[in-house]
Amino acid sequence: MEIYIKIFEVIFPVFFVIGVGYYLGKKSPKFDTTFITNFAGNIGTPAMIFYTVTTTGITLSLFIHYFIYALIMIGGFAIIGLLVLFFLKKDLSMELPPLILPNTGNMGIPICLFAYGTQGLGVASAIASVIILFHFTLGVFLAKKSFSFDILIKSPPVYAIIVSVIFLFFKIETPLFLENTTFLLTYATIFLVLMSLGIALTKFKFSLKDSIILSFCRVIIGPLIAFAVIYNFNLSGLAAGVLLIQSAMPSAILNYLVGSMYSPKKIVDNIASTIVVSTLMSFITIPIVVFFALKYFN
How far apart are CA 107 and CA 120, in angstroms? Predict the structure, then answer.
């Protein structure tokens, strides 16, 4: 019962803010979300990357280890995701990110903290940081359907990644004013992107059947792939448990942000529907995954 209360505490604010956006979208059908996209992509997300990487107790060694594990898991997610998208006759590139990039940040971290306490926080934050990096490298290339160094050079999140890794490498302590500033920008960004998603829900068309299939792929197949990684790398304890829990998270909200920046509206609609449906499904699946994680990796 306690896990359901925790999940409700995590999920309720998400759907409340989406509901605010939905209300605003219905009330003002011409509500323009361009400002939100520009702010989140150019200011909010770089702040989020820096805050997540430099202020959550992650070491460079931990970051590198989970970069490798996350890369392998994403590869597994991608293989299954491509097969499902091919079967559903979906776009194999632009609709892949919601299947391979889970919501390990504002949803995964608090649930891992609940399950494993402060000991699991560093591992959960390391995985979340790696996933955020992939959003603005791999995710951008998939959404845009092309590889271009021009995108990297002009992308503020890429510079945030570089600065963050420098802070980790040289073990630079983040000044309090910078931590507070990036903290505010991070949560402002989460709020605005969720609200933008709610506004989008008033305008889009999608297939519920396809969204359910894709969401099933994200929240059910994800943990199975993570278990394979845990088994093959002989991981145990909270390291294995946190990896398993993070793999079970629904599609990340940042998929919607990146999609809205680089993909056509029809694709963005499909991404938004997968995020919403997978988040609803996770209310059932996450307690089961947490139970197994605590039972076998405690």
Answer: 14
